[in-house]
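PROTEIN DATA CARD
Card holder: Nitrogenase iron protein
Chain length: 299
Origin: Methanosarcina thermophila
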Amino acid sequence: MTKARNIAIYGKGGIGKSTTSSNLSAALSDLGLKVMQIGCDPKSDSTNNLRGGKSIPSVLDTLRSGKRIEISDIVYEGFNGVLCVEAGGPEPGVGCAGRGIITAIELLRQKNVFKEFKPDVVIYDVLGDVVCGGFSIPIREGVAEQVYTVASSDFMAIYAANNLFKGIRKYANNGGALFSGIIANSMNQPIQKEIINDFALQTKTTIAGFIPRSLDVTRSELRGQTVIEHAPESEQAELYRELARSILNNDKKYVPAPLESEKLKIWAESWSDILLREREQKGQVKHSIGEINPVGIEI
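Structure generated from the sequence above:
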């Protein structure tokens, strides 16, 4: 590859975004590519599983130290040579959480990090609960050419994805990044795939891959590793490699068609009704209708 492929991966907190990003980075490196992962979450834990569970100093923490900054202070090597960077966030209660992304990207450019390391792929792991301020930088500034979102059939994950689509649509006419697909995570039941497939249909988006929930992920992360490192021969590791190959071969870039709030609510309630009917047919109804959450329940 001659020019780095810049990919932003969004997703609500707790959806498995960083797990997916780090395993994707490890899988891409396993395919022989030079990969850089930039954690854009104030928690600064995006790259932990690429570093044996060890955290690295963030760009903002390093800047706050006041010392002269060298590239080695902010770029660390992880599993299989993956280059790891954490943008970081402000001190608690002070400043904008998204500011770390802006500052980190500016500093990496000033230090000619991308020219020095010449990565084939740069993964931006971005918190997707909100798409505003610094968190929208990879989209609105065209830092990333492609945007993916990690989502499940849970309503709040879908809600966050729908908001992301609104952000992409907003900046699309001003050189912003375009969308390339949904990475459907924690997909273990057919009905969950049906829900996410229908959401993609309604929003005129595509599915980049399905990743089931697996204990291999839990075991690997308890050791501070990716599945690619801890269980390289496992079925789950091969799924991440398939996702990596799919993303490498995916040239789709388009503007999604997000649902307006009322339509999203109606859509979610329709799936809640479907789930309820399936439970009734199985004789497993244990709650009243008012106690069942839209979309996110398991059957």
